[in-house]
Amino acid sequence: MNQRWDDTEQMGTITMERPAIAVSLGGGSQRPSVELSARRLVEKCTYAFCFNQVTFSYSQGILTLEGRLPSFYLKQVLQALLRDLDGVTRIANRVDVVSPTGLSSVRPK
Q1: Is residue 76 classed exposed, middle or buried when 0-12, 13-18 and 19+ CB atoms within 10 A define those classes?
Q2: DSSP bridge partners of 82
Q3: Residue-level pLDDT at 94
Q4: pTM of the predicted structure, to 2 decimals
């Protein structure tokens, strides 16, 4: 099956849109919330210790990621990990990249 993802960068936010493809995480009629499902997926990931400063919010098919990570690679890993969650048609990745060396993707206000 072919999936097409459109990446656009706006003000440090990467937004991915995709056709609605349901991936069941089990749970039957008592399906956990999307935020809880996202947190469970992240906790099982090899990089889970890096993702503890990231929060998830979900509304009308859009999963929004916010927080800080030490690299762009981890930001992309997180986004790829969550892209097939049931009910998610779009990911708004608002995670800031802030490295321990002081380099940052965060724009001054």
Answers
A1: middle
A2: none
A3: 95
A4: 0.65
